[in-house]
Amino acid sequence: MLTLQQRSIAHFDLDCFFVSVECLKDSRLKGKPLLVGGHSDRAVVAACSYEARRYGIHSAMPMKTALRLCPHAVVRGGDYDAYSEKSREVTEIIADSAPLYEKSSIDEFYLDLTGMDKYFGSRQWTTELRTRIIKQSGLPISLGLASNKLVSKVATNEAKPNGQMSVAFGGEKSFLAPMPVEKLPMVGKETAAQLHRRGVEDVKTLSEIPLNLLEAWLGKHGISLWNKANGIDESPVVPYHEQKSISTESTFPADTIDMRFLHAELVRMTEKIAFELRQQDKLTGCVTLKIRYSDFETVTKQMSIAYTCSDHILLEKVKELFQRLYDRRQLVRLIGIRFSHLVQGNYQISLFDDTQEMIALYQAIDHIKNRFGWQALMKATNV
Fold first, then answer.
1. Which pLDDT band, with edges at 50, 70 and 90, does 372 fall under?
2. What is the pTM assigned to this prediction?
3. What is the rounded end-to-end Cα distance, in angstroms, of the chain?
């Protein structure tokens, strides 16, 4: 039986995904400093090209600041429908070929190719798949191949832009050793600063610190860091079709035809599970609405949407589905809402046209809900 240490894991990452889609739509943008985000001074940068990064620009930076750093940058408002469509296109290419894959975000995938070397080489197979994705989608994509998800992701980052890299089994620790600690996934500025203050600059030094000392410094996060520094990661590739949906439903105390009440319930339920999405750092790409009438007949309708976790966008889709589905004047017994096709992501990359104030508002709302419960703050309904 194969052990976890003998796995073969590939990581695919669509390079500068939003920027690449914009360049695919308009080839004149290639090679230019390109910013994707809102046009107002209070908007933020959702994504930027490599050319823009040379000026110190990064995602989540205020657009006004980015344009001060690079006044000649081109700004595109963002087309999340196009990004979602291209993400689904690449997903279908991978799904047609890979024995087991996980869609970890709108532009990232992990493939478990364990055992494939018995029949043909994983490196050759992944190279051919990468070539197929580039040819069919027109998008650049980088590839890392290693024995676990952690090392394959780092290898992908090292292979960018539009390249590939493999790390042989047994060479994980030496591959990571010379890198700055910031190159380990989930090592943010704060953690890196704590390590730097203690003289820990590279992964090799981090890997040599006694585990109990790291735990004393950083708690459970210290244990995770030690494992990463030593190239250890036993997390499985989670099959995409098994990604959980988030749903809620409400059976009313009495069957009703009160439209004001029904719309209020749609708002309440949508806000509830949209908050759950953000809690889990997830975006949804599909909304389903269920209605059960007083005679127990149940009808459902769903729609694919641009990936999001924002209340106001999801509520608009839910209300649209309700208007299309509730086509007769009959008492309603139950309403259910489900968000599926979940991928990793958050509201900061899905609100292309929103301002810093809107992002700050969502953060403040979620802070209150985290502290006092999801029902502590809800939209007023006037429908």
1. low
2. 0.79
3. 60
